[in-house]
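Table S2 (continued). Query chain:
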Amino acid sequence: MRKTNQPSPEKYLTREGYEKIKQELDDLKNVKRKEMAERLHLAISFGDLSENAAYHEAKEAQGFMEGRILELEDMVRNVTIMEKRNGTGMLGLGSEVTVEAEGGKQKFKIVGKNEADPLDGKISNESPLGKALCNRMIGDVVAIETPAGMVKYKILRIE
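Corresponding output:
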Protein backbone atom coordinates (compact mmCIF):
# COMPACT_ATOMS: atom_id res chain seq x y z
CA MET A 1 0.00 0.00 0.00
CA ARG A 2 1.29 3.44 -0.93
CA LYS A 3 0.13 6.87 0.20
CA THR A 4 0.08 9.82 -2.14
CA ASN A 5 -1.96 12.85 -3.08
CA GLN A 6 -1.49 12.33 -6.81
CA PRO A 7 -3.44 9.77 -8.91
CA SER A 8 -1.55 6.92 -10.53
CA PRO A 9 -2.53 4.39 -13.19
CA GLU A 10 -2.95 1.71 -10.51
CA LYS A 11 -6.06 1.19 -8.41
CA TYR A 12 -6.61 3.98 -5.95
CA LEU A 13 -9.05 4.64 -3.16
CA THR A 14 -9.77 7.14 -0.45
CA ARG A 15 -8.84 6.10 3.10
CA GLU A 16 -12.55 5.42 3.74
CA GLY A 17 -12.82 3.20 0.66
CA TYR A 18 -9.66 1.32 1.61
CA GLU A 19 -11.01 0.57 5.09
CA LYS A 20 -14.30 -0.60 3.59
CA ILE A 21 -12.47 -2.98 1.22
CA LYS A 22 -10.38 -4.36 4.10
CA GLN A 23 -13.54 -4.91 6.16
CA GLU A 24 -15.27 -6.75 3.30
CA LEU A 25 -12.18 -8.92 2.79
CA ASP A 26 -12.00 -9.74 6.49
CA ASP A 27 -15.71 -10.66 6.55
CA LEU A 28 -15.38 -12.89 3.49
CA LYS A 29 -12.30 -14.71 4.80
CA ASN A 30 -13.30 -15.08 8.44
CA VAL A 31 -17.10 -15.31 8.39
CA LYS A 32 -18.43 -16.14 4.93
CA ARG A 33 -15.86 -18.88 4.24
CA LYS A 34 -16.96 -20.72 7.39
CA GLU A 35 -20.62 -20.32 6.43
CA MET A 36 -19.83 -21.62 2.95
CA ALA A 37 -18.01 -24.66 4.37
CA GLU A 38 -21.08 -25.46 6.49
CA ARG A 39 -23.34 -25.04 3.48
CA LEU A 40 -21.16 -27.40 1.42
CA HIS A 41 -20.99 -29.94 4.24
CA LEU A 42 -24.80 -29.93 4.49
CA ALA A 43 -25.20 -30.28 0.72
CA ILE A 44 -22.76 -33.20 0.63
CA SER A 45 -24.81 -34.94 3.31
CA PHE A 46 -27.73 -35.09 0.85
CA GLY A 47 -25.91 -37.82 -1.05
CA ASP A 48 -25.15 -38.39 -4.76
CA LEU A 49 -23.15 -35.31 -5.78
CA SER A 50 -23.71 -35.81 -9.51
CA GLU A 51 -27.39 -34.87 -9.18
CA ASN A 52 -27.22 -32.77 -6.04
CA ALA A 53 -28.45 -29.28 -7.00
CA ALA A 54 -27.71 -27.85 -3.53
CA TYR A 55 -24.09 -29.01 -3.79
CA HIS A 56 -23.59 -27.57 -7.29
CA GLU A 57 -25.20 -24.29 -6.24
CA ALA A 58 -22.97 -24.08 -3.15
CA LYS A 59 -19.83 -24.85 -5.20
CA GLU A 60 -20.72 -22.12 -7.70
CA ALA A 61 -21.33 -19.62 -4.88
CA GLN A 62 -18.01 -20.64 -3.33
CA GLY A 63 -16.24 -19.98 -6.64
CA PHE A 64 -17.72 -16.48 -6.86
CA MET A 65 -16.79 -15.77 -3.24
CA GLU A 66 -13.19 -16.97 -3.72
CA GLY A 67 -12.94 -14.84 -6.86
CA ARG A 68 -14.05 -11.79 -4.90
CA ILE A 69 -11.52 -12.58 -2.17
CA LEU A 70 -8.72 -12.72 -4.76
CA GLU A 71 -9.90 -9.44 -6.29
CA LEU A 72 -9.97 -7.70 -2.90
CA GLU A 73 -6.57 -9.11 -1.88
CA ASP A 74 -5.09 -7.80 -5.12
CA MET A 75 -6.71 -4.42 -4.54
CA VAL A 76 -5.35 -4.18 -0.97
CA ARG A 77 -1.85 -5.15 -2.16
CA ASN A 78 -1.76 -2.75 -5.10
CA VAL A 79 -3.87 0.19 -4.00
CA THR A 80 -2.70 3.75 -3.75
CA ILE A 81 -4.47 5.62 -0.98
CA MET A 82 -5.30 9.12 -2.07
CA GLU A 83 -5.05 11.65 0.72
CA LYS A 84 -7.06 14.87 0.71
CA ARG A 85 -5.26 17.90 -0.65
CA ASN A 86 -5.59 19.89 2.55
CA GLY A 87 -4.61 23.51 2.20
CA THR A 88 -4.27 23.52 -1.58
CA GLY A 89 -7.80 24.71 -2.32
CA MET A 90 -7.85 22.29 -5.25
CA LEU A 91 -10.40 19.59 -5.71
CA GLY A 92 -9.15 16.00 -5.92
CA LEU A 93 -9.81 12.44 -4.87
CA GLY A 94 -11.35 12.37 -1.39
CA SER A 95 -12.64 15.94 -1.65
CA GLU A 96 -16.25 16.78 -1.00
CA VAL A 97 -17.54 19.44 -3.34
CA THR A 98 -20.71 21.49 -3.44
CA VAL A 99 -21.69 22.67 -6.90
CA GLU A 100 -24.51 24.69 -8.36
CA ALA A 101 -26.07 23.51 -11.61
CA GLU A 102 -29.20 24.82 -13.26
CA GLY A 103 -30.23 26.70 -10.12
CA GLY A 104 -29.86 23.75 -7.74
CA LYS A 105 -27.07 22.77 -5.37
CA GLN A 106 -25.57 19.29 -5.24
CA LYS A 107 -22.88 17.79 -3.04
CA PHE A 108 -20.50 15.07 -4.23
CA LYS A 109 -17.51 13.23 -2.90
CA ILE A 110 -14.83 12.47 -5.49
CA VAL A 111 -13.69 8.85 -5.12
CA GLY A 112 -11.87 6.15 -7.10
CA LYS A 113 -13.91 4.06 -9.53
CA ASN A 114 -13.89 1.09 -7.15
CA GLU A 115 -15.88 2.96 -4.52
CA ALA A 116 -18.13 5.12 -6.71
CA ASP A 117 -21.81 5.13 -5.73
CA PRO A 118 -23.70 7.97 -7.42
CA LEU A 119 -26.86 7.26 -5.40
CA ASP A 120 -24.81 7.93 -2.26
CA GLY A 121 -23.25 11.09 -3.73
CA LYS A 122 -19.88 9.42 -4.48
CA ILE A 123 -18.72 10.01 -8.04
CA SER A 124 -15.67 8.53 -9.70
CA ASN A 125 -12.76 10.74 -10.60
CA GLU A 126 -12.89 8.92 -13.96
CA SER A 127 -16.51 9.93 -14.68
CA PRO A 128 -17.03 12.90 -16.99
CA LEU A 129 -18.06 15.14 -14.07
CA GLY A 130 -15.30 13.80 -11.81
CA LYS A 131 -12.66 14.42 -14.48
CA ALA A 132 -13.94 17.94 -15.09
CA LEU A 133 -13.96 18.81 -11.37
CA CYS A 134 -10.54 17.44 -10.40
CA ASN A 135 -7.79 20.05 -10.03
CA ARG A 136 -10.33 22.88 -10.02
CA MET A 137 -10.89 25.54 -7.37
CA ILE A 138 -13.80 27.33 -5.73
CA GLY A 139 -15.48 29.63 -8.24
CA ASP A 140 -14.45 27.59 -11.30
CA VAL A 141 -17.19 26.62 -13.74
CA VAL A 142 -17.05 23.36 -15.69
CA ALA A 143 -19.34 22.30 -18.54
CA ILE A 144 -20.32 18.67 -19.07
CA GLU A 145 -22.11 17.23 -22.09
CA THR A 146 -25.03 15.09 -20.89
CA PRO A 147 -27.78 13.26 -22.79
CA ALA A 148 -30.01 16.25 -21.98
CA GLY A 149 -27.44 18.72 -23.34
CA MET A 150 -24.65 20.86 -21.89
CA VAL A 151 -24.77 21.39 -18.11
CA LYS A 152 -22.59 23.94 -16.31
CA TYR A 153 -21.43 23.33 -12.74
CA LYS A 154 -20.05 26.13 -10.57
CA ILE A 155 -17.86 25.02 -7.65
CA LEU A 156 -19.18 26.65 -4.50
CA ARG A 157 -17.33 24.78 -1.76
CA ILE A 158 -14.54 22.23 -1.37
CA GLU A 159 -14.06 20.26 1.85
